[in-house]
Amino acid sequence: MMIAKMKSSMIPLNHAVLCLDCNSVSDANRECPACSSQALMNLSVVLNRPPAPHAKLREFAAAA
Asked: Longest Cα pair distance anywhere in the chain, in angstroms?
């Protein structure tokens, strides 16, 4: 039951938006389902970043 509930509430990062007016996260296209605001920010732009250069060095050191 818990796993089914988690899957139904998951939003892929490339679809997730943050409403800048009410701080709700959804997969809305143009309007926040919670407050009807159109001030939405795509979260993948902020969160889906390439790894920092020092993270690659740690990966290389761990593999050696």
From this structure: 52
Place of tokens 């509930």: 5
Within the chain, strands assigned E span 17-19, 25-26, 40-42
User: 29: which 2 tokens?
Assistant: 């296209």
Q: What residue segments make up the domains of the chain, in order of their start?
A: 2-63
Where are any strands of DSSP class E within 6-47? 17-19, 25-26, 40-42
Sheet containing 40-42: order of strands: 25-26, 17-19, 40-42
Mind listing the pLDDT tens digit of every residue in the chain (64 residues)? 455 555 568 999 899 999 999 999 999 999 999 999 999 999 998 887 776 666 555 555 555 5
| 52 vs 35: CA distance, rounded Å | 36
